[in-house]
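Narrative of activities, Objective 1.

The group set out to show that a structural description can be obtained from nothing but a protein's sequence at a throughput compatible with the screening campaign. Below is one input-output pair from the validation batch, recorded exactly as produced.
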Amino acid sequence: MSQSLNLSISTSSPTSPNFASLSRPSTSFLTGSFRFPVKFRPSGLRTPAPPELLITKASSDPEAPSASASASASAAAATLGSDNGVGGVLSAVPPADTGSIEVDAVTEAELKENGFRSTRRTKLICTIGPATCGSEQLEALAVGGMNVARINMCHGTREWHRRVIERVRRLNEEKGYAVAIMMDTEGSEIHMGELGGASSVKAEDGEVWIFSVRAFESPLPERTIHVNYEGFAEDVKVGDDLLVDGGMVRFEVIEKIGPDVKCRCTDPGLLLPRANLTFWRHGSLVRERNAMLPTISSKDWLDIDFGIAEGVDFIAISFVKSAEVITHLRSYIKARARDSDISVIAKIESVDSLRNLEEIILASDGAMVARGDLGAQIPLEQVPSEQQKIVQLCRQLNKPVIVASQLLESMIEYPTPTRAEVADVSEAVRQRADALMLSGESAMGQYPDKALTVLRNVSLRIERWWREEKHHEVMELPDIASSFADSISEEICNSAAKMANNLEVDALFVYTKDGHMASLLSRCRPDCPIFAFTTTTSVRRRLNLQWGLIPFRLSFADDMESNLNKTFSLLKARGMIKSGDLVIAVSDMLQSIQVMNVP
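Output recorded for this entry:
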């Protein structure tokens, strides 16, 4: 059965206002190439039609007509698409009910103050640590633009993380935010232990330190570090280079004494608790035994159970080696919590991850470019190209992607970033990554709020520059649909995004129950913001990770006419839209595209 794309345009008459005139030039309305037939029909035809894909264009006269004209307008008003191709009439806007729609308080304030085009498209993630775990600090981050709060299970107790989760949830409920929660597993790679309660220790050039697999009574002997991997002393050899935290500190192995390994510091720096360790021999990463370690350790499974019980929105898995690990975890989550809506994020930070990149991303709900650990396993000069490759592949496969690690590393200690760091952040935004993540900058840094402000301001500036220079997307997006119905949704979103750019509309509206069509629109990276309306709180928070989406929680029906009426009423009452704004609306309940001015 062939699917046709119909454009229904209201025509003016002497007795009705001109509902065909939009507030933007529409000559380039259908400049994109469609892969199904395009037909036009006047909206006055109300005869039943066979099932079809419907695009409707509608508008309201900005000037109030006379009583007779108003009566005519109700009959000639914007035709709304329905699943059987029969139009409906856009009824009068009902009285406002401001209590039945939920949107992030910061986004609402931005829309009211600066309008549609001011909204930031790139999402921001903050790692929560000692510097930001209090209620006041968390609220400051939310006000500053934090979309997702990350808890790192490498540090702190589960009770500590539970309190952070409770504070974030309370902040959302009481202050109107929509901050999602991501739990990051520790992974089973080789790492250091705690530093005797210290938040960091400085290793100086030439100092000799002991790395040992022995269990020490607290406090640790001076310049001694516990290593979690029992085979560590057996695997390393004298002359090996030991890299801490992706190369932030470097040691040379000078002697092995039973379970102890004596190392001389050759590149000084800060040692952080539970930092990752890798060792190199003759310029190559030593990974034979490392590759045999399980991706998800016994501790990770306990942490995953904790995350499921606490209802986190995302679980990020460290050092993913294959798609089977992700598939196994997703099955486990489904078995443990049938109603759970937890997304699984694969952290790309090892040679194995790069070798199996596409299959890992396909199996996951998203990916993180963990550049710190990745840079410890591949040549440093290779990291930028691998980052771009991962970002592009995630975009093509419709998976959100996070660029993480050392974005503003200097701001752990200093109130302003280096210019090179700003350029690095700008490049990630220019690559159109979904999200940027702060790690130590927000977890233990002295200036977490300022670091977040830098991310926000750079993101806004680069996004605005992109739009001003008319850098419309040139990336070829492959077909990813697995069914005919999904193909229709994909074509609708591709077409709607092209129309939005060509018509310079103010916003795209998408009504989605599971978030799929919202993600398809985000994949297209349109110039305008995307208002994503969904019925569940968990989907709303999950959409907070994806580029350009402004998620709302709204109860809606399958009737697009009533949904639009209700949405216009509620958003106008809160000052987030105004009459005359040009929007395009799509829905996963009704395969249609509607173009209209807000009445």
